[in-house]
Amino acid sequence: MNRIEELFQQAGSPAEFARGYFVYLGTLLDRIDEHALGQVVEVLMEARAKGQYIYVMGNGGSAATATHFANDLAICTRAGALPFLAQSCTDNVPALTSISNDFGFEEVFFKQLEHRVNRGDVVIAISASGNSENILKAVDYANSCDCVTVGFTGFDGGHLRERARIAVHVPSGPGEYGPVEDLHMIFDHVIANYLMLLCRAER
After folding, report:
1. Where does 31-200 sit in CATH, by number?
2. Which of 45, 79, 91, 101 has the fewest CB atoms within 10 Å, measured from its CB?
3. CA torsion, points 157, 71, 139, 133, in degrees to nearest 10?
4. DSSP assignment string, 66-106
5. First to last CA, the chain
């Protein structure tokens, strides 16, 4: 039984469950390595300065986070002199379905990176389990191309935590998708808000 299931069993009402959930999120936030988040900001700033591309990917709820993150990087930072060349690998439905149909779902992100990424590009992979085959295949390929790979993980981190060059980990219990995805969105907003304000100060 994970912590979310325990909170449900212990709660006498939806309000009590909500309070317990919020408290638990706070305990997880206290265990996040803010220095790893700082490293992500640094590599994104370096990519921007050099005109490198930033690719973001994830499955399910993490796909929505990938889209949100890429949008925040590409659009919300436009006050600055240079753009962040960010895009989500989860948004092109024809590409996702054709690759899945022709090559298999484990290829959907790798095939979008293949022959496209260059040394110094940034690949951000978002996965609660850290074990999604399509994520790992893309990250391994990106590493082989000397890209900077970033992993947002949860649970025990899975293989992604080991293979990403920078890992920002949510140390949750197994199967706690809600809290992990909540904190991944917070990572997005921490990074994007910092970069937005940094860009605004350039004017």
Report:
1. 3.40.50.10490
2. 101
3. 70
4. HHHHHHHHHHTTTTSSS--EEEETTS-HHHHHHHHHHH-GG
5. 52
**Does the global pTM surpass 0.90?**
yes
Nearest Cα to Cα of residue 62 among 134, 150, 128: 128
Amino acid making up residue 156: D
86 has which bridge partners? 54
Task: Looking at the chain, list the stretches that DSSP marks H as alpha helix, in order from N- to C-terminal side.
Answer: 3-10, 14-29, 34-50, 61-75, 93-103, 110-113, 133-144, 158-163, 177-200
Contact between 176 and 2 (Cβ < 8 Å): yes
Calpha distance 186→203 (Å, rounded): 26
**C-alpha distances out from residue 47 to 34, 35, 178, 186, Å:** 20, 18, 31, 22
* pLDDT tens sequence across 71-122: 999 998 876 778 999 999 999 999 999 999 999 999 999 999 999 999 999 9
In the chain, where the domains are located: 31-200
C-alpha span between 8 and 143 (Å, rounded) = 41
Picking from 136, 157, 186, 193, the residue whose alpha carbon sits closest to that of residue 25 is 186
